[in-house]
Amino acid sequence: MYKWIITLLTLLFLIGCDSKPKEVLNVYNWSEYMPEDVIEQFEKETGIKVYYSTYDSNEAMYAKVKLLESGGYYDIVVPSAYFIDRLRKEQLLHKLDHNKLKNWKNLDPLFLNKEHDPNNSYSIPYLWGTSGIAVNTQRIKDPITKWQDLWNPKFKNKVLLLNDVRDTFAMTLTLLGYSINTKDEQHIKEAYEKLKELKNNVRVFNSESPKQPFINQEVEIGMIYNGEAVMAQRENNNIKYIYPQEGVILWVDNLAILKNAKNLQNAYKFVDFLLRPEIAKRICEEIGYASPNKEAKQLLEEKIRNNTAIYPSKEIIEKATIPTDIGDTIRIYQKYWEKLKSEN
């Protein structure tokens, strides 16, 4: 009997060991930023198990990466361009071997070799988009054309602001005529004071899924990422995306492999998989953001390529501003951001 029990326990142990995936990949990405079926297809094709976690701001991602840096917990992150700049300067990113990415050729040169990462030594453009205004035109009949419109007293308790310090301050700095990348504390303080005037109108701060309060009709107007607006329109075609006259915020989010990634080769396989035109096309179609993959764009239906909420006009792009790394000045922004959110 004793030998039988030992044999059974040994067998159960071996079964347990065999059930654990031998090849894994740990991805840390923005919420609602990659279709589940894309991950499932990668797992099916490669046998690599993807463990997928999400965040709702660059700052949250950065804090977690710093905390877990030595353990190499995550393999891939998806920072905005200005955080790529910070991460590479702090030597937290793996220097890429482009020879391992056969689908690199599919990327549009327009998005490559930028100031935040010369020669794209550390990052791969994933998706790009804008932050503008969403409005429920069934509830709000007045024409909405400017950021300033959010301050209209008629919108008390009806406004959504992104729960993102840089985006929300960028909106306000643009309105005040200052650079969205200012390091001048007086300008930042003025933006804070302006946002205080808006506080009575704000119903919710949300950057994890800002479309949802619009779909649920909890809010009627507010800041939003363009892709979230596109997804909201699928549920309610009264929701419109507006490019404010003062100028929109344009950003590019990038795939990057962390320096201490434990599953380096699997990370390369995943990135190259995402660069396949048919995969990049599916991501654009489902998530609602523009793809920097020129071959994928050619595969899109004309109605998507011509949807200005996804692919803005040249005039809109020329007037847009792009966040850059502001170094330690971020602490000043965060100080006023925390004050803003804590005050009644």
Describe this structure in words.
There is one protein chain. This protein has 344 residues and is an alpha/beta fold. It has two domains: 185 residues, D-Maltodextrin-Binding Protein, domain 2, CATH 3.40.190; 146 residues, 3-Layer(aba) Sandwich (D-Maltodextrin-Binding Protein, domain 2), CATH 3.40.190. Strands 1, 2, 3, 4, 5, 6, 7, 8 and 9 form a nine-stranded mixed sheet that branches. Helix 6 packs parallel to helix 14. It is globular, with a radius of gyration of 22 Å. The protein starts with a helix and ends with a helix.
Flag low-confidence runs.
none
CATH superfamily of the largest domain: Periplasmic binding protein-like II
| Order of helical and strand elements | HEHEHEHEEHHEHEHEEHHHHHH
Helix vs. strand class:
alpha/beta
Number of domains: 2
Radius of gyration: 22 Å
Report the top-level CATH class of the largest domain.
Alpha Beta
Q: Could you say what the CATH architecture of the largest domain is?
A: 3-Layer(aba) Sandwich
InterPro entries: SBP (IPR006059), Sperm_putr-bd (IPR001188)
Subcellular location: Periplasm
Coiled coil: 181-208
Keywords: Coiled coil, Periplasm, Signal, Transport
Please sum up the structure shown.
One of its GO terms (cellular component) is periplasmic space. InterPro entries: SBP (IPR006059), Sperm_putr-bd (IPR001188). The chain has 344 residues and is an alpha/beta fold.
What are the SSEs and their pairings?
Elements: H1 2-19, E1 24-30, H2 36-46, E2 49-55, H3 58-67, E3 76-77, H4 81-89, E4 124-136, E5 159-161, H5 165-176, H6 185-198, E6 202-205, H7 211-215, E7 221-225, H8 226-235, E8 239-242, E9 249-257, H9 264-274, H10 277-287, H11 294-299, H12 302-305, H13 314-319, H14 330-342
Helix pairs in contact: 5-6, 6-14
